[in-house]
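job 3f2a | input accepted
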Amino acid sequence: MALKLKQWAGRYALVWIALVLIVAGLVAGAFGPRTQPVAAIVTLVGTVALAVWLARQPLWNRRSLEAGGNALIKILALVVILAAVNFLAVQSGLQVDLTGAQRFSLAPESKKLVQGLQQPVEVLIFDKQINAEARQLLELYQRENPKFQFRVVDPQSDPATAQKFEVRGFGEVHLESQGRQERLREALSESSLANALVRLTQPSQGKVVYVQGHGERPAEPGQRGYSQAIQALEGRNFTLQPQVLAETPNLPQGTKVVVVAGPQRPWLAA
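job 3f2a | predicted structure (270 res):
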């Protein structure tokens, strides 16, 4: 009897060691700070040890299944491995986007922008609730940098906050950082949010002088206008300034770009 017990203990020694490591890692992860490396490392070592033991066992042959206790131990080991892997995934925060259009990932430019935030930024959505797509987008930004936070504010339940941001209706999105405020100029999307972050956190990119007076394409919306390009420049924190050179020949200070959009008449000699 003692010999059998000793053999049984030796056979399952790796299982007990693995279980002790996994339990220790889970406890450390549950009661310690999140994403601490020790808990994840201990849990990973225990999981690998248990997986190695399980892989070496004849799990599904008849003889093994006839021994009910052995089969039960192996099934429990498999369950523990799955639980430990799930814990490690939560601890690491690792996510893999396998969709063809990368629907659940931010563009590299957006990641770089939000990762570079030096001061806390809060996004306030003035509505009763937000849809799943908008929440998913905001959570993607938040995951890149804890300095990025968001909350939904019901203007009717919190009129003081709505008044502070001069909210005119439901659906408005405002950003605040270090006492500065910025309002989304378009519907909430990755690009509109990135543009608002640039305007809020970065200094002006400079002036874009849009030359007029020679039949150039107008800046206003229309068939011949470049309104979308202009809106994109303004969204990236450039200041647009139309200018008739015959009236004001000198470019303003801080001019970065001069746009000459298809003049129809020759320029004056001056």
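job 3f2a | Residues 115 and 266 are 48 Å apart (CA to CA).
job 3f2a | closed
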